[in-house]
Amino acid sequence: MTEEAQRIIAITRQHWEQQVDNRLMSEQDLQDVTGLKRRSLQVQWFQRHFGVTPVQRADGRVIMTWSAFEGLQAKRAGVLPGASAPTRTPLIPIRKAA
Known about the structure:
Elements: H1 3-19, H2 27-34, H3 39-50, E1 55-56, E2 62-63, H4 66-77
Antiparallel strand pairs: 1-2
Domain DUF4224: 25-68
Protein name: DUF4224 domain-containing protein
InterPro entries: DUF4224
């Protein structure tokens, strides 16, 4: 393979790794993100903050990739492409202005 082809492959690999991070979050990562050690409390944390129940292994450990977590954060922040801002109910004045 030529040096140019190897360079293109390396750049493509780096770009792909930046776009998609399929690494699973480690036990320490989950503790750092949630601030909790108990697995059941970590599940409750994800339910409270993102409204989702994460996938769990038979032993109760949360299974989540970094890309899924970043997607949840982006959705919560409203920065996903094509995501619309949450609609707000119309404000009703309590009293008439003088």
